[in-house]
Amino acid sequence: MKTIKILIIVLNLFVGGFMIYGGIGKFTKPIPAPNSIIEQVQKGEEVAPSTEVLMIKNYIFGMKQTNYFWQFLGFAELLAGLLLFSQVLARIGAIIALPLTINIFLFHLFLESEELGELGLTFALFAANIALIGFTYKIWKQLLYDKQALKLAS
């Protein structure tokens, strides 16, 4: 039992650390103008060295040019990371982090699948998040499956 508690703390710190690091990264670089890639193409400048890199740039640029989504994503990552670090509110932090870690893993799976190191790391991040939720399944089970509601429906 003590080993599992230590493992949960380590996983909270692992996932939380990545969330905080990624969240801070969303606020450190200036957001490009909405038409910056279009201007690069019109000037004949190279936007990306390959189609794969262009797909990645377009995906991230699309989130940035909304003028809110990139910052919202950073805020959600920071929130999840801080909740996971707190240990007291880590369960809700793991739930908030789940769609973020799924997206991070799928981004690397479909857009950077040749980067095996990053793919492995993002899979470990996603698996750790799933494990954190799984360790507390007995607590979440009541929210997902309510026997009382089923009796009322019959």
UniProtKB/TrEMBL annotation:
A cellular component term, taken from the record's GO annotations: membrane
Record keywords, A-Z: Membrane, Transmembrane, Transmembrane helix
Subcellular location: Membrane
Record membrane topology: Multi-pass membrane protein
The keyword Transmembrane belongs to this UniProt entry's keyword annotation: yes
UniProt superkingdom: Bacteria
Major site of localization recorded for this protein: membrane
Protein biosynthesis as UniProt keyword: no
Membrane-spanning ranges: 7-24, 68-85, 92-111, 123-140
Name the record gives this protein: DoxX family membrane protein
Native organism: Flavobacterium humi
Taxonomic lineage from the root: Bacteria, Pseudomonadati, Bacteroidota, Flavobacteriia, Flavobacteriales
